[in-house]
Amino acid sequence: MENIFYEGQVIWAQIDANRHMRHSAYADICAQARSNMLNKMGFSLDKFAEFQIGPILFREELIYSKEVHLDEYVQVKVELTRYNKTNSRFSFVHQVYRKDGALCCTVNVDGAWLDLKRRKLTKLPEEMEPYLAKVPRAAGYEEIG
Q1: A GO molecular-function term, please (predicted)?
Q2: Which CATH number characterizes residue 37's domain?
Q3: Terminal CA-to-CA distance of the chain, rounded, Å?
């Protein structure tokens, strides 16, 4: 499977009273997968600090398909679904799979880049655009602007 940016075992702290992975644990591992992907493509924390920007989210949607239980292993696939070149808004899809290949959860997020000094939305600096070109695109990827 391509574009896997997180693999790990489901631990006790990620389980809820129903003995399956809790809702917010899916969001946590998808955030880590997205962070891993951005870092691998060149968007390191140091690079964000250099340009005084950071990614923020406006929306996070989780769609559950199958249960994941304690001690099972999961993989998270991350792909860019939409990017607006005019204002640098973006959307990513994350797919959480069990090791048996079952799709367990789909997480969709919408976000943008935040200027950390002005606390306002900003465009991605030109110097960082080559990193964006490396980000994996989903089937049906849409570029706006």
Answers
A1: fatty acyl-CoA hydrolase activity
A2: 3.10.129.10
A3: 31
Calpha distance 38→10 (Å, rounded): 23
φ/ψ of 65, rounded to 5, equals -120, -45
Burial class for 2, CB neighbours closer than 10 Å (0-12, 13-18, 19+):
exposed
| Nearest by Cα to 21 from 89, 80, 77, 73 | 73
Closest among 55, 54, 62, 47 to 103, alpha carbons compared: 62
Q: Residue 133 — φ and ψ, nearest 5°?
A: -65, -25
* Count of Cβ atoms closer than 10 Å to residue 143 Cβ: 10
Q: What is the pLDDT of residues 35-67, one digit of tens each?
A: 999 999 999 999 999 999 999 999 999 999 999
Number of domains in the chain: 1
Q: What is the extent of the structural domain holding 84?
A: 4-144
Which helix (H) or strand (E) segment holds residue 30: the answer is: helix 23-40
Q: What was the pLDDT predicted at 1?
A: 82
| pLDDT confidence of residue 145 | 79
- DSSP SS3 for 100: coil
- Rounded to two decimals, the pTM is 0.95
